[in-house]
Amino acid sequence: MEAVVHSTVVQILVTGGAGFIGSAYVRAVLKDEFAGAVGASVTVLDLLSYSGNLANLPVTDSRLNFVRGDIGDAALLRDLLPGHDAIVHFAAESHVDRSISGAIPFVTTNVLGTQVLLDAAREAGVGRFVHVSTDEVYGSIDEGSWTETWPLAPNSPYAASKAASDLLALAAHRTHGMDVVVTRCSNNYGPHQFPEKVIPLFVTNLLDGKQVPLYGDGGNIRDWLHVSDHCRGIQLALEKGRAGEVYNIGGGTELTNRELTGRLLEACGAGWDMVRPVEDRKGHDRRYSLDITKIKNELGYEPQVTLEQGLADTVTWYRENRAWWEPLKARTGR
Ligand SMILES: NC(=O)c1ccc[n+]([C@@H]2O[C@H](COP(=O)([O-])OP(=O)(O)OC[C@H]3O[C@@H](n4cnc5c(N)ncnc54)[C@H](O)[C@@H]3O)[C@@H](O)[C@H]2O)c1
């Protein structure tokens, strides 16, 4: 199948655009960072759940239209979707620990909500639909790296709900011929990440002189990807990805949680006495590792932000933006 170049996308609907990654994508589009979307207008559809935050968006930008609403609201979508050339679908319940305490919102938004959105996109004749998925759908891998054809074997309720939505998106292509592309990315980090995820949680704790909780033996391995590299990969998939295909997006930097903790301690000028070992997460996947050969070869993707630079910039951002994260931590009691 030939690559379809969607280089003149003028009206993009971004679900979950007030969250961490969605807002980074929206800010990049509005700053004309992507050659294929220069001058594009963006509609953000976001429920503003606990992790959605209008402070993440340039709300006064005339190219941005913000709509507060649920991706599972079919009537709202019927009115909103016509006229859009593409959808980039980020909206989700996104935190594994929350899915362990209660999985229902994950099924409601990630599975049901995605199907409602797919149906509405088809009815409205929206063009390309980029479904933002995760490497967690593959499960855990002791050696080697996952290619896109690896069987899905999710372990947490979060990962299982993402696997379901990922497969529903692919089914919409195979069954209805929808122009769907799925991206599966590794652990993101960067500015504006809700301070429940490990990097912003650890950094903000350390900036406040508080200890950080390290799960189990700290030997779990993750591949770290700067959010701006993820957004570049998503845009490549939107512009040049082949319909019905999956593209892994990774950063190529695998670290144990212990190694990551060491780097964060150093960046914040703290020692190992600031680390509090805690009982391991239930069903904690041991290792994630993505093979990103396909997106490199087909779409020319290459991560640009080194972990050293990305972590340093991220720590600086949290240091300089207390007004952004202090109210969030106070609200969640973390
Ligand atoms: N953060 C990561 O490391 C990572 C890694 C791989 C994949 N992903 C995927 O990327 C996407 C974005 O993740 P994130 O880290 O930015 O999450 P996030 O929690 O920061 O943002 C999610 C956004 O979705 C919105 N939302 C939730 N339910 C909604 C609903 N029913 N209708 C409309 N909006 C709703 C929230 O208000 C929020 O703005 C998710 O699909 C996630 O599974 C994230």
Strand content: 15-25%
Low-confidence stretches: none
Going by CATH, the architecture of the domain at 11-189 and 226-251 and 285-303 would be: 3-Layer(aba) Sandwich
Radius of gyration based on Cα positions: 19 Å
CATH topology-level fold name of the domain at 11-189 and 226-251 and 285-303: Rossmann fold
**End-to-end distance:** 49 Å
CATH superfamily of the domain at 11-189 and 226-251 and 285-303: NAD(P)-binding Rossmann-like Domain
Overall SS class:
alpha/beta
- Quickly name the level 1 CATH class of the domain at 11-189 and 226-251 and 285-303: Alpha Beta
| Bound small-molecule species | nicotinamide-adenine-dinucleotide
The succession of helices and strands, N to C, reads EHEEHEHHEHEEHEEHEEHEHHH
Sheet with the most strands? 7 strands, parallel
Strand order across the biggest sheet? 3-2-1-4-5-6-10
